[in-house]
């Protein structure tokens, strides 16, 4: 079996997060995407990468150019250390690069984290971030995780929670 080559990515890269309407992987792809950006590439320390996830959704991959000028720090809904697997494999497809990025220092003390060798960092799985962004856009229930308030904890502030989230029945 041939090992798939890892995709190159770097700080400032903007990528597409595929949105899903179910939990069955590729079978449930909606064809829609949200936008995210690499803030800090620290995968050698923590096995993760710090990313900003934006409230910017496109219906098709080729619509990115129409929305790229609307991406700014006011649209950030979550900043998370997440696993690198979907960036490396190209599932999170890099579509652009910008040196104009959200300051990670607003959310994490990166220098201290690096001095401590990444100790104490909670890395959220990249697949969970797909579910989070899909729930953000009402494609999945907001309370789908084991902890029904888990997605609330991924938001940068309570004010970023969508008004009319879908909720699953218990």
What is the topology, as strand order, of the major beta sheet?
4-3-2-1-5
What fraction, in percent, of the residue positions are helical? Answer: 10-25%
| Number of structural domains | 1
Any idea what the shape is? globular
State the distance separating the first and last CA atoms: 43 Å
Main sheet: strands, sense, barrel: 5 strands, antiparallel
Q: What do the pLDDT scores average to?
A: 87
Write the layout of secondary structure elements.
Elements: E1 13-20, E2 29-41, H1 43-46, E3 48-58, H2 64-67, E4 76-83, H3 85-89, E5 93-97, H4 110-115, H5 126-136, H6 150-154
Antiparallel strand pairs: 1-2, 1-5, 2-3, 3-4
Descriptive key words:
alpha+beta, 5-stranded antiparallel beta sheet, 26% strand, globular
